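Wed. Picked up where I left off yesterday with TerC family protein. The coffee machine is broken again, so keeping this brief.
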Amino acid sequence: MIDFLISYDAFMALITLTFLEIILGIDNIVFISIAANKLPKGQRAKATNIGLLLAMVQRIILLFFVSFLIGLSEPFYTLENEWLKIALSWQAIILFSGGLFLIYKSTSEIREKVEVPTHDEKGVRSKVIETLSQALTQILIIDFIFSVDSILTAVGMTNGLHPNHTYTLILMVVAVVISIIVMIGFANPIRKFIDNHPSMQILGLAFLILIGFMLITEAAHLSHTEFFGKTVGAIPKGYLYFAIAFSLFVEFLNYRTKKHTAN
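Structure written out below (tokens, as returned):
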């Protein structure tokens, strides 16, 4: 296991996944802050920290559940005709559904952030919260909503890295724990940075569209899908890492150019 965790693929997956978890967790921090700010001043920090820790536990439980479903790789139904052949398994169905969900969610989030950026915040502000327990309940509900794309992103980044699902599960758990710790320690600086550079969050959502497409092709590959006798191959994770790294490099150059122009 140690050999896998210190391998290049595992290291790149951990770095990229942790980055995406933090970027995609910004909205979560914003909504948690809104819920916590309805409490007396002395309880706000406590509610935020406890809420994030509970969120971490909730995500780890969801990771175990999703990983169990992904482990069900044996086909239970085969569809075959002249132009299409598919060996359906729960693994393929979960990956395919997850890919469609990520593409839909990311596209919707990008549209909403461009057209009505404060829509969800108004919805959270309208909730009545008077006690710490009510705030924590609201935080858990908020985090559950945001956990789905987070978990699917983790699955997309690590699926196929190692034949033993336990190893990839450990990698996902480590990434989630690191991202939550970073968010607890640097929530306000990260939030301010994203507020000043909203393109970073749009970029993160664009990455989810890419990961969603990869999940769909992975589902087709694992279900041995054939179109007119042509099989669907798996997309190497290195392509994904390169696309993300290149996009971040371009964004960094853009940031430096703007900063230089402002000075």
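Quick read: The first strand starts at residue 77 and ends at 80.
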